[in-house]
Amino acid sequence: MAWTCSGRTNAELVENLFRKGLIRSEIVKGAMEKVDRAHYTPSPSRAYEDSPQSIGHAATISAPHMHASAAESLLPFLHSNARVLDIGSGSGYLTAVLAEIVQRDEGRGGGRVVGLEHIPALRDLGERNTARGERGRDMLGRGRVKFVVGDGRKGWRRDGGEEGWDAIHVGAAAAVMHEELIEQLRSPGRMFIPVEDSRGQQWIWLVDKDGDGKVKKEKTMGVRYVSLTDAPK
Ligand code: SAH
Question: 66 is in which domain, residue-wise?
Answer without folding.
Answer: 55-223
